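Reviewer 2 asked us to include a model.

Predict the structure of this chain.
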Amino acid sequence: SVGAAAMMHFGGGDNTAAARAGADFVVKRYGLSATGGIYLASEGADEGELSYTGLGTYAQVGHVLGKKWQPALRYALVNEDSGDKSHEIAGALSLYEFAHNFKWQSDLAVLIRDVLGTKANDLRARTQLQLTF
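Predicted model (structure tokens):
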């Protein structure tokens, strides 16, 4: 599947005008899944004076093994016009014990940030359990 979206916020008064646009995709075949997207942002005093303010993008690929386990790899980037930049590099593992009725997902990511000239690296671990009945 492929999707696209756009949004326009018209300025006026004390409001700033803004526009957002994005496109994404999903491909699933024989247990392989791939997703990705790109998103653009612009702002200005009014809709006639919009200028680029940032870009975000991501890509993820995974594969279901034995109808229960799904390892995945993900990369994401947020690049702002101000020079601030954030990267995420992650590995994930999902368990589908009873299809999507019992789902346990965990990921481990390295976050690399350069914000206002200050560089910072973080390690993030998350887990979630989803039950459906």
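The mean pLDDT is 92. Strands lie at 2-9, 17-29, 32-44, 51-63, 69-80, 85-96, 102-115, 118-131. We have added this to the supplementary material.
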